[in-house]
């Protein structure tokens, strides 16, 4: 949301005590990144980090603001003047390690439109978030006072927390990180519930803020969903499942499995104990069963990979059946190679596919076969030693 104020800048104070805490994650996102995203979302265009110790800006923050500067406490005025001559504009300061939400920043901006200066407090204790406007916006004493968390400005207007909503939480240690994360987790989970998502054991499910979940889906216990994952409608996710930066289609079930940076279609059944690594694209109505691992693989609609199989660097067509124990041998010790399995192929149990290799449409590999050459369409590949029988073997073996 863009502010009506002409320009808005934010100052974040990094100290030796809080610099580590700014890197700590709340629901898989560093606190520093949480703060940057909230400021950006509310129209803050310039960011000034005041730090007397070396501090590396979080990845992704550089692209959020038109300007970012870093200085020590002795050069705040000069840094602000380099960013802009603020005049009637405003500055937000964040002095402590604080988890702050969008409502807090927006209320502060709204208040700055009608008041000269504001500090947010709860019960007389500084929150670590304050704002300045007008000529005070360039007063280094006021700014540094706020950055150090001082509570000595009698002429500041106090904003009651009931008027603002959820102000945020100061984080002084790892115990505060954990307690804050529980509150944020519950807030996010309740928001999904209000949109029609059903939880079983919501206190054990941790879901990132940017995750989207469709109506009618169920989240079972011990589920972790990270990043910008999108879950469709009527899905069943969990228990004991991790999904990161992935897209899951409507009606899909994921049980006790992990999916990383991949796309999964509609009405897919995954797990238990499946591992879908980054770069996979699984089409509709696929079955990925227990102890199956996919890596940079595309899998066509209706294919079944039921158990104990590795499919890596592969292009798999529609309605392919994988027998137990199939392996695509994609790595020769120097480079990765691709396996192509066309529509309707039948891969027998314990087949080894030595890439690069292609199995044609409706072709079959016999159980125990090692495939080193392309298998033509509709043909049968048998690549195993002919069975021989040693009579009375057990009698001689025991001598």
Question: Which sheet architecture does the biggest sheet show?
Answer: 23 strands, parallel
Number of domains: 2
According to CATH, the homologous superfamily of the largest domain is: Hexapeptide repeat proteins
Beta-strand content bin:
25-35%
Stated plainly, the CATH topology of the largest domain is called UDP N-Acetylglucosamine Acyltransferase, domain 1
- Structural class by secondary-structure content: alpha/beta
Mean pLDDT: 86
Poorly predicted ranges: 1-6, 152-156, 160-166
Oligomer: single chain
Q: Give the CATH architecture of the largest domain.
A: 3 Solenoid
Q: Count the DSSP helices.
A: 8
Let me know the number of strands: 37
Distance between the termini: 86 Å
The whole-angstrom Rg is 29 Å
- Estimate the global geometry from the Cα principal axes: elongated
Helix content: 10-25%
The CATH class designation of the largest domain is Mainly Beta
Give structural notes:
This protein has 399 residues and is an alpha/beta fold. The protein folds into two domains: 8-170, Spore Coat Polysaccharide Biosynthesis Protein SpsA, Chain A (Alpha-Beta Complex), CATH 3.90.550.10; 198-381, 3 Solenoid (UDP N-Acetylglucosamine Acyltransferase, domain 1), CATH 2.160.10. The strands form five sheets. The protein has a 23-stranded parallel beta sheet that branches. A seven-stranded mixed beta sheet has the order 5-4-1-6-9-8-10, with helices on both faces. Strands 30-33-36 form a three-stranded parallel beta sheet, with no helix packed on it. The chain is elongated and about 100 Å long.
